Amino acid sequence: MDARIQNSVVANLSGRPAPIHSGPFVLGIDLGTDSPGINYATPIPGQPLSAAGVAAMVAAFRAQNRQPRLEYVVSTAPGLEALLLAAGFEVEERHDYLTCSPETLSIPPTPDGFALRAPSTDADRAAMIAAQHLGFAGVAEAAPDQVARMSRLQSRGGIAVMAVETATGGCAGGGQAVPPHDGVSEVAGIAVPSAYRRRGLAAAVTADITARLFAAKAEIAWLEASGPDSGRIYERIGYRPAGKRLYISQP
After folding, report:
1. In what order do the strands lie in the sheet with 159-165?
2. Domains of the chain with bracketed CATH
3. Which residues form the N-acetyltransferase domain (predicted)?
4. How would residue 164 be classed by pLDDT, with cut points 50, 70 and 90?
5. What is the CA radius of gyration of the chain?
6. Is the pTM here over 0.90, yes or no?
7. Helix (H/G/I), strand (E/B), else coil: 242
């Protein structure tokens, strides 16, 4: 399972607007933003790792004026963390990832007063992104490059779902999933502003995205929980802990 998840990350980064292959790494470069959360690298499973390879990867990041940063499934790159630490990298976070299959998915009812649908216009996408930012950081904003990125994700076979308050038409949260690779897709960006929490919207949005993936013939959906509370939400709809991921960057 770890290898399938890691290979899906490699495929996702390779689909970025300006990916760079540097030895055993692929860098998912997006020229529209310098955000480290968008521009990061991951190792290709089975490729030999070395200090020289890490140095070349760092140089590739610096040539693009991007911060060297990686996200990866720990078991698929034995010894890489030590090489990165020796090169001045610092651990940001360690996460469990969870997986879901069609057999384990449990779809809850959509909370009363809300509807779930895919954003179909740039105005929809901007409203969903603003709601996600409000849920994550408390600031509602949606930059044009972020709207374009979501549109591009949908055009490549990715999925986005927004929760809409039926009485007002306002967006109450949302999330997305990357285009599946080898039957595997990452679900991410699940966020609900504080005013709409504790109604079951996060679970409903996550389950709807996951169901759409399986309807499109995906076999495995995976995601990461930001903490115990979100982990319990995901487990209730059929996600199960499956492995470890590392976030690490060079200042």
Report:
1. 20-22, 25-28, 40-43, 69-73, 240-249, 90-100, 220-224, 184-191, 171-177, 159-165, 114-117
2. 2-88 (no CATH), 114-243 (3.40.630.30)
3. 114-251
4. very high
5. 18
6. yes
7. strand
